[in-house]
Amino acid sequence: MELEQSCIFCKIVRQEVPAKRIAETENVLAFFDINPAAPTHILLIPKLHIASGNDLNLAHGPLLAEMILLATDLAKQQQIDGTGFRLVLNTGPAAGQSVDHIHLHLLGGREMGWPPG
Ligand code: AMP
């Protein structure tokens, strides 16, 4: 509970911290990344706190589908569906997870290398 009180993304959900919101569904909020790594860089988060991908289980299936389908809708809306886009779920420190509330990155609008750095 204390973690949820101090979590920056929970604060965005509660509108205690401003964010440039672009869309929401019943369980998912989408907003622009404050430090964009691509011309289109949107974060999609569950409205309820889940710390990391390591905490996911089968019961989260519908929530994950909601996140991915909202991301693909936004890719169309942002007109990056044709050129291509990337969905990223950084999990854990070595992968670069810096906020302990799961977030799906929607990145597009530029060429991307593989493998990611
Ligand atoms: P990750 O490194 O995968 O944990 O991604 C965290 C992302 O959250 C980074 O791309 C940050 O730029 C972004 N971020 C952190 N704080 C905020 C905020 N207050 N509003 C929008 N994006 C944020």
Measured by DSSP, the beta-strand proportion falls in: 15-25%
Helix content: 10-25%
- Number of H/I helices: 3
Structural class, from secondary structure content?
alpha+beta
Low-confidence stretches: none
- Give the oligomeric state of the chains in this entry, treating copies of one chain as homo and distinct chains as hetero: single chain
Q: Mind describing the biggest β-sheet? A: 5 strands, antiparallel
Report the average pLDDT across residues. Answer: 97
Give the topology string: H per helix, E per strand: HHEEEHEE
Tell me the Rg in angstroms: 14 Å
Based on CA inertia axes, which overall geometry fits?
Answer: globular
Side-by-side strand order of the widest sheet: 1-2-3-5-4
Bound molecules: adenosine monophosphate
Distance between the termini: 34 Å
Number of strands: 5
